Amino acid sequence: MTGVQTCALPISGKPVIGLGRGGLLETVIDGETGVLFPEPTVASLIEGVSRFAPGDFDAAKLSRHAASFSKERFRREIADFVAARLDEAAAGPGGRSEKKA
Asked: Residue 12: left if φ>0, alpha if ψ -120 to 50, beta else—which one?
């Protein structure tokens, strides 16, 4: 399963069961948006699946959490970050504008 898929499932109100490593640690909240198991072993997977109860997950909450990883949010935050850095650069050292009057 890819990182995109782990965001797409919650948008549709479906929780995720996955290995608690890598990108899943950033996109899945154990017990809230899915179930994470700690080791890449059969025993760990069985433990994770045994903790999974579909009725424990709120589809609306899953969708809201997944929306926080949207392209629109990413674009907005990158644009805001770049604009802030450009403003800082234009202000120059000490916060004064480097533009000549």
From this structure: alpha
CA distance 32 to 79: 30
Nearest to 33 by CA among 54, 55, 57: 57
Give me the long-range contacts of 60-66 (CB less than 8 A, separation at least 24): 60/13, 61/32, 61/33, 62/9, 62/10, 62/11, 62/13, 62/14, 62/15, 62/33, 63/10, 63/11, 63/12, 63/13, 65/10, 65/29, 65/32, 65/33, 66/7, 66/8, 66/9, 66/10, 66/11, 66/33
How do residues 52-77 score in pLDDT, each as one tens digit?
998 899 888 888 887 777 788 889 99
In this structure, are residues 49 and 85 in contact, taking their beta carbons and an 8 Å threshold? no
Q: Considering the entire predicted model, what is its pTM?
A: 0.62
Supply the pLDDT for residue 80.
95
